[in-house]
Amino acid sequence: MSELFLAVLNMSLTASYVILYVIPVRLLLKKAPKIISYVLWSVVAFRLLIPFSFESIFSLLPGNTNAVPIPYDIVYQQSPQINSGIEAADSFVNQSLPAPAVGASVNPLQIYMEIGAYIWVSGIIALLVYSLVSVLLLKRELKGARLIEKNIFEAKNLRTPFVLGLIYPRIYLPAGLSMEEQNYILIHEQTHIRRKDYIIKTIAFLIVSIHWFNPLVWIAFKLMNTDMELSCDERVLKVMNQDIRKPYANSLLSLAAGKHIINGSPLAFGEGNVTGRIKNVLNYKKFSFWVVAVSVVTVIIAGVALVTNPKQRGAIKTEDKLTGNTKNTAEAASNTEYKKVKVEFVSGMMGFKSANEFETSDSKIVASIESTLRTSLTPAEEDDLENNNTNKYKIELYNDTGKYSFLIYYDTLYDKARIAKDGGLYEVSTDFARYIDSFLENTSITVYIDKADAVALFKEYGWTLDYQINGMNKKLDNIKALSGFNPNAYYFAYNNELSKDIGLDMSGYSDTGIDVEIYRIHESMPQEFYPIQDCRGIVVRNNSKIIGAFISAGRHSAFNACSLKGNSFEKVTGQTLNEWLADMIQADGLETSLSKLEPEQVIEKYFTALNNKDDKTAEYCISKKTLLGSLTSNMQNSELYNDSVVLPLTGADFGAASSLGNLKSAKLLKTELFDEPDKYTKIYSVTVDLQYRNDFIISSGQQQWDCLMVYESPQTGWKIEAFGH
């Protein structure tokens, strides 16, 4: 029952936002037909009855509003939290929520939720009993009512006219009304019946009974009833087709002033808010076409904006898209108790994640997650899990009978992971935590890997391919010799050395077409690359034959790569990068001319090239190590490398179409030797004036930088390796 109570609480919280929007919209429609305001309350009813909705960029709800403000597994969370979208309220509530006691048979919050659920049900029963008793008492008082015609009755001591009954609605009128007053009131009450208002009000009262704890719902119910009555009054004035405003208002006033006994029940249409109704009647005018049209459009726009949820950043729902086929292993399918899994990132910082949700029915993924839960987990000591370096994930497993949920905490600073489930806290491998996290970063994946040779090759060296991230066709440029800076040639030439460690050499396939496959690897990068852990398996094919394979960390430096044997570039080649580059590079004319310059002249040449928008010359002034290292910086895991590199101090963001697009001018003002660690390294202090179109990375103006110069090789000479402070 507590789960049902939580579902109602979530609907009530979301509906509260909608009510707070509908009230001011209703005021904006003050001069519009009241039937339009009346219709608008259906949006509130939808939110109070339906526990789900769809996302839209037009939603008026706050962007940080969670579709489920109170998580359904809150009683099992190590640090229970709600996310209503109101930070102050969330902070106040979250601080007062008790955490589950590890090892205790029942969580305190679970007890509170059960008590709250029983109080909630008791309130519903009390309201329904009150309503039923009121109807029964009213019917007893009305036994002496006199039938006038059809379903119209007249009763003595009746305070106000109303409609009573669901299946056979009856109109009850106070005795002593004039014929004119009866006509007005009958049109009013018959409008209620024709519009099925007696059913609508019953449903509305049931909704209020379910959400009785929410004062905004009571306010909405009262305002809806007001709009219902006002719209019926306007109908009377329209049907009579003459100016009856004053006599109709007098009728309302006389009914209110009469000293009667019998009153209506919550489900009867007792006509309240007499003052407001009289004002509305006296101020009534026929509505122009444009007033009606604008009002209808306003309600439609508001309705769509309030029915929909705010679009979450990149939320993904993957079903058939994940696998590309249905060849999930029978072994995985037969061993799993659950049919679907949902992963939700519930921490603040998204980082490189493309989505905050992931959902799949793929049995391989479901079985992998479930098998971790089935293993014997080691209890963990209580720890501070709510900090800036810990990512938090909510996992939900579904089957035909329900769902099971738990939390994962992954501390990226101290490299440890914890599972919070069933009120307990347990240790879990960081490989598993990274596996969960990967689904939020890699958006289009193929779970079933149909390339058995790739799986076998990596398995031979102790690597596990989880799924395929991407695949692409490329041309392999000449990697036998390098000149200038061609991202394709430098990337594959560097990683070809890693492929050679397992007997694969791509150089013989230069200037031919290749197919590249990018896989997610379950294991971490070798320890020497720590703290870099996530890694990808890269497979290169020519006519379906594997011609190259290596391990890459992806969006980090291109040097965070190793062979399938786990060996670094230096270990495989027996050379430093600059030594290898000296052997590989064949200098062209521009490279040769720059190789003759002194370090100060290279610096001057660089800033002159920037100012002249000569990106080719500027690129030649930068060391190949710097250019190669930035080939994979800040890219998506689905990409192999960046097609272009960002030149230093240009103020361009990674992925920009041009390094020089944001730079207006660059002027070198002063160059001074600062330090000379050895004969191949010099550090200069440079003063420059840089002007940018947008100062979002570096501010415009005169500034001082330290410039690290390195002697790359006799063929290429001095190069700029980095700018810093």
Please explain how this structure is put together.
With 725 residues, the protein is α+β, with helices and mostly antiparallel strands. 39% of the residues lie in helices and 21% in strands. It has 22 helices and 21 strands. Mean pLDDT is 83; it is low at 72-80, 99-106, 259-263 and 313-334. The chain is elongated, with a radius of gyration of 36 Å. The protein folds into 4 domains: 2-307, no CATH class; 320-441, Immunoglobulin-like; 452-584, no CATH class; 589-724, Nuclear Transport Factor 2, Chain: A.
Strand and helix map with partners:
Blueprint: H1 2-28, H2 34-49, E1 55-56, H3 87-96, H4 108-141, E2 146-149, E3 152-155, E4 162-164, E5 170-174, H5 179-194, H6 197-210, H7 215-240, H8 245-257, H9 274-282, H10 289-307, E6 309-310, H11 320-323, H12 330-335, E7 340-345, E8 357-360, H13 363-374, E9 390-399, E10 402-411, E11 416-421, E12 424-428, H14 430-441, H15 452-460, E13 465-476, H16 487-500, E14 512-521, E15 536-542, E16 545-552, E17 561-562, H17 569-573, H18 577-584, H19 589-595, H20 599-611, H21 615-620, H22 624-629, E18 663-678, E19 681-692, E20 701-713, E21 717-724
Parallel strand pairs: 1-6, 3-5
Antiparallel strand pairs: 2-3, 4-5, 7-8, 7-9, 9-10, 10-11, 11-12, 13-14, 14-15, 15-16, 16-17, 18-19, 19-20, 20-21
Overall SS class: alpha+beta
Determine the N-to-C terminus distance: 62 Å
In percent terms, what proportion of residues is strand? 15-25%
* Average pLDDT taken over every residue: 83
How many β-strand runs? 21
Main sheet overview: 6 strands, antiparallel
What characteristic shape results from the CA principal axes? elongated
Major sheet strand order: 8-7-9-10-11-12
Number of DSSP helices? 22
Quickly count the domains. Answer: 4
Helix proportion:
25-40%
Q: How large, in whole angstroms, is the Cα Rg?
A: 36 Å
Q: Which consecutive residue ranges, at least 5 long each, have pLDDT under 50?
A: 72-80, 99-106, 259-263, 313-334
